[in-house]
Design brief:
5 helices, alpha/beta, binds S-adenosylmethionine
Length: 246
């Protein structure tokens, strides 16, 4: 059975938990730099940074996240149109990775009187240290998680399982995906999709509420997620500590 591990912490501390170079795919959906608090029912999370502050925040965290990618691992980042190009530029210039391709999540929204040019797609971009990997651009038409959907868990900006499953399945055609890490995991859509596909998964979120939701979603489907104590290298990884680079 897939192993699922959950961590409550800021992902800037990812190296305290995850052995260097041990992840095959980092698939994540970080805050988008909207300058808002995203709230829905009893859950909310801050996305209050924007502009330069947001780019610096993401740069620092992406640099730490990169430490857990092995040499042929993929970094797959989901962003909306506002900051996706700037973050792609940071990943290429500061982290030294190449842009290999992207998935375009095409969705429909209810029309708004305020904004006639509402966004109807997000980019999920794929980066790696392999310049020769060319994945091109794939359009994935998938509906957002509707308020009435039985999939909905009440966490703001929850992503559809169908979308994440499609992305992970496509990634298996270009790399051997045994372990998927989501350092901004929210309600755990990435973790659940990975576990359903038989992959091991690690989720991290600074909000304990988010990790509680992840745990419940995974348990409901028969997985047995393990929570890791603060600042502890994941137990099963101690055997691999020789792979850690000092
Ligand atoms: C866009 S949401 C993820 C939603 C998720 N994909 C889902 O389907 O539910 C971003 C998440 O990142 C978390 N977050 C923000 N900054 C963080 C940080 N520095 N470290 C870890 N988690 C963080 C927020 O608490 C929020 O849950």
């Amino acid at each position: 059975m897939s192993k699922a591990t959950l961590i409550v912490d800021d992902c800037i501390n990812i190296e305290d938990y995850i052995t260097r170079k041990s992840g095959d795919v980092i698939l994540t959906d970080p805050p988008y730099g909207t300058g808002q608090v995203h709230a829905l029912g009893c859950y909310s999370y801050d996305d209050v940074l924007n502009g330069k502050g947001y780019i610096e925040y993401m740069t620092d965290r992406l640099a730490q996240i990169k430490t857990c990618m092995h040499n042929s691992a993929l970094l797959v980042v989901h962003l909306d149109i506002n900051n996706c190009y700037e973050i792609a530029s940071v990943i290429q210039r500061k982290l030294g990775l190449y842009l290999n391709g992207d998935f375009v999540w095409a969705y429909r929204r209810w029309s708004s009187k305020k904004n006639s040019l509402q966004s109807n797609h997000d980019l999920i971009s794929v980066f790696s240290s392999d310049q020769s990997l060319r994945m091109g651009r794939r359009i994935l038409p998938v509906s957002i998680v509707a308020p009435s959907s039985c999939e909905r868990v009440g966490y703001p900006t929850q992503k559809p399982m169908k979308l994440i499953s499609r992305v992970l399945t496509e990634l298996t055609t270009v790399c051997d995906v045994r372990r998927v890490i989501d350092p901004f995991c929210g309600s755990g859509s990435t973790l659940l999709a990975a576990a359903r596909l038989g992959m091991d998964t690690i989720g991290m979120d600074r909000a304990v509420d988010a990790i509680d939701v992840c745990e419940e979603r995974l348990r409901l489907e028969g997985f047995q997620p393990v929570r890791v104590m603060q600042n502890r290298l994941i137990e099963s990884e101690k055997n691999h500590s020789a792979r850690r680079i000092a």
